[in-house]
Specification:
Elements lengths: L2 E3 L14 H9 L4 E4 L10 H6 L3 E3 L2 H6 L3 E3 L14 H4 L5 E4 L7 H9 L3 E4 L14 H20 L7 E3 L2 E3 L3 E5 L3 H12 L3 E5 L6 H6 L3 E2 L6 H4 L11 H16 L3 E4 L14 H5 L6 E4 L16 E4 L2 E4 L9 H18 L1 E2 L2 E2 L6 H6 E4 L2 E2 L2 H12 L27
Parallel strand pairs: 1-2, 1-4, 2-3, 4-5, 5-6, 9-10, 9-12, 10-11, 12-13, 13-15
Antiparallel strand pairs: 6-18, 7-8, 14-15, 16-17, 18-19
Helix pairs in contact: 6-7, 6-12
The structure holds nicotinamide-adenine-dinucleotide.
Length: 413
């Protein structure tokens, strides 16, 4: 077998799926590595550094794609910018693809992979188990996004984050509210604290209270029982109408006093909950900043414009959709370690061995041998074929898999 690393073709994408350090690890497992020329340029890894690590550089992208046995990527296959064909059509039949496939948002792509008998694994479906932690690319990207959200907020805000005692008097610290205390939210809380802001963390899952407080922030979530707030796998679930109202009222009061609000709230497989209505933005102090990290799933704020920034009622609202990609060095390093750990699970004595009895391999597999293995995606595609409500969702639409379904759609932040 060989492993191929393609140059990412997404507009503005600067990350690379495999860094030279990981090439060394893959080579040590007895597997040759082919890297497309320039693949590491956006994250400052030269072709020479890949050659030193033991990779072979391929200058012709057509040759790289058509010769791939196992292709490693970050983004799902896209129309290739120079070869005039879709990358999923360039891959050889029966080859293996590993990337952040986001299958529930890319149903047409999944259909192509099935037709071409490509075995695909989605890094966003890695189970959230202790054994799979090293492969958890979602957490890696959420860490980068949570950090960068605070940097973006600080750069956008018209005031300091820390309290400053100056000859011109004392300047009050900024008040930062982080909504959603998952991986991205906790990283945002930690970063805002390091910059000296007064930080509050809000979440509907009471389980995160201790984590928020351990970072030096105040937990301001509503008093909702654990059973009401989260499912068996620890993810948030949709709330009852009464609990929703209670949570909304509390949140509205906290938003009003914040200078910066960073939102990260998600429910797996569903559009992001709308937690900041337009009226709440109107009540904020002019000059306040909102960073909506759920913008790619529709946004937590009603006024968010995904992929851009808008100013409403004197409040700057950012809706970044690929913030992790703005830290290409560390985001690539983390992703590369995650995908390499996953790849090495598939390699025995230098050969590809797919052991579907292994829960990580099984749950991460989307298509194999002309069939859809990923249950939520199969249900969605069968639903679409039958013209049912769930299946009628657009192939680009936000997922509607059962909340908490293992491997349900997750964002790559
Ligand atoms: P996520 O991206 O699914 O959601 C972000 C946060 O939004 C969550 O904390 C969620 O509770 C919150 N949220 C959802 N709806 C909300 C609402 N209406 N109001 C306020 N907040 C709302 O979360 P994630 O970062 O992927 O992490 C989800 C869980 O998985 C966490 O418990 C995390 O600790 C756990 N996790 C476990 C592992 C592991 O064991 N390997 C790895 C990563 C994450």
């Amino acid at each position: 077998m060989n492993v191929s690393v393609a140059k990412e073709s997404g507009v503005g994408e600067r990350r690379v799926a495999v860094t030279p350090d990981s090439v060394r690890q893959i080579r040590a497992a007895g597997v040759p590595v082919l890297v497309e020329s320039g693949a590491g340029a956006g994250s400052f890894h030269s072709d020479e550094s890949y050659v030193e690590a033991g990779a072979t550089i391929v200058s012709d992208p057509g040759a790289l794609w058509s010769g791939a046995e196992v292709l490693l990527k970050i983004q799902p296959p896209l129309p290739h910018p120079t070869l005039g064909r879709h990358e999923a059509e360039l891959l050889p039949e029966k080859s293996v693809l590993v990337c952040m496939l986001r299958p529930l948002s890319n149903l047409d792509l999944v259909r192509t992979l099935v037709r071409r008998k490509i075995t695909s694994f989605s890094m966003d479906a890695i189970p959230r188990t202790t054994r799979a932690q090293r492969m958890d690319a979602l957490s890696s990207m959420a860490t980068a996004a949570g950090y960068k959200a605070v940097i973006l907020a600080a750069a956008s805000a018209p005031r300091f984050f820390p309290m400053l005692v100056t000859a011109a008097g004392t300047l009050a610290p900024s008040r930062v509210l982080v909504v959603g205390a998952g991986v991205a939210g906790l990283q945002a809380i930690a970063t805002a604290r390091r910059l000296g802001a007064i930080v509050e963390g809000y979440d509907i899952r009471p389980a995160v209270k201790e984590e928020v407080e351990s970072l030096g922030a105040t937990f301001v979530g509503p008093a909702i029982s654990k059973e009401e707030a989260q499912d068996a796998s620890g993810y948030a679930k949709a709330l009852s109408a009464e609990a929703q109202q209670k949570a909304k009222d509390l949140l509205r009061a906290r938003i009003r006093q914040a200078d910066v609000v960073i939102t990260t709230a998600r429910v797996p497989g569903l559009p992001a909950p709308k937690l900041i209505p337009a009226e709440a933005v109107a009540e904020m102090k002019p000059g306040s900043v909102i960073i909506d990290l759920a913008a790619d799933m529709g946004g937590n704020c009603e006024l968010t414009a995904p992929g851009t920034e808008v100013v409403k009622h004197g409040v700057v609202i950012h809706g970044p959709v690929r913030l992790a990609g703005t830290l290409p060095v560390h985001a690539s390093q983390m992703y590369s370690r995650n995908i390499t750990a996953f790849l090495l699970l598939l390699v025995k004595d230098g050969n590809l061995v797919l052991d579907f009895k292994d829960d990580i391999v099984r749950e991460t597999c989307v298509t194999h041998d002309g069939e859809i293995h990923h249950a939520p995606t199969r249900q969605r595609i069968e639903g679409a074929a039958a013209g049912s409500g769930a299946g009628a969702a657009s192939s680009q639409g936000a997922g509607a898999a059962a909340p908490g379904t293992p491997g349900a759609e997750r964002s790559s932040a």
